[in-house]
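Q: What residues go here?
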């Protein structure tokens, strides 16, 4: 079996709003995020990890913020598109691991719903997708509640020729 690995990172600032989209799930919060799309840092970091594993550029290359088509877009569209790019080259996600960094909202109660949504979109098993969270102990921009960040690592697999 052939393997490739990629990593991704994304940040969005908090702004006015009543929810944040994380891993395709609407998480109630007293803030929203500032973004061109729905601002889902989990899916953006994951897309970048998937694209990075095959050196296919990054999310901004495939979905430019200058393109009005992606205004308020559902980031699951990006995820499914990236999955298609991998699969048409013979690859699929082996497993992915995401860490969300924020003081709030509390991610734990929503993590399994996010995993199920992502696993469904990637057509992989639930156990192939990990989504977890940490605070930054009130340090830095996430610690001050100015924004939310996510880091993703993704292994791609392809059956040997
Ligand atoms: N936004 C968050 C942050 C953390 N968690 C959970 O709390 C645990 C403790 O966080 P520390 O930063 O103090 O280590 C963490 O392991 C997560 O399980 C969360 O759900 N949402
Ligand atoms: C997702 C895109 C879509 O235009 O815009 P944003 O929602 O602002 O998110 P970002 O993480 O900055 O990635 C760039 C863009 O591809």
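A:
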């Amino acid at each position: 079996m052939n393997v490739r690995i990629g990593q991704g990172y994304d940040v969005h600032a908090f702004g006015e709003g009543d929810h944040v989209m994380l891993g395709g799930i609407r998480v109630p919060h007293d803030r929203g995020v500032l973004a061109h799309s729905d601002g889902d840092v989990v899916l953006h970091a994951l897309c970048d990890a998937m694209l990075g594993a095959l050196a296919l550029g990054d999310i901004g290359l495939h979905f430019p913020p200058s393109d009005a088509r992606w205004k308020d877009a559902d980031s699951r569209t990006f995820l499914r598109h990236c999955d298609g790019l991998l699969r048409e080259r013979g690859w699929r996600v082996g497993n992915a691991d995401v860490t969300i960094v924020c003081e709030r909202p509390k991610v734990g109660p929503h993590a399994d719903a996010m995993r199920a949504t992502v696993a469904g979109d990637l057509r992989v098993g639930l156990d192939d997708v990990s989504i977890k969270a940490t605070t930054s102990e009130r340090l830095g921009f996430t610690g001050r509640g100015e924004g939310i960040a996510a880091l993703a690592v993704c292994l791609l697999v392809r059956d040997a020729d």
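A: Context that may help when evaluating the design: The helical segments are 41-53, 59-62, 75-87, 111-122, 140-143. Residues 41-53 form the longest helix (13 residues).
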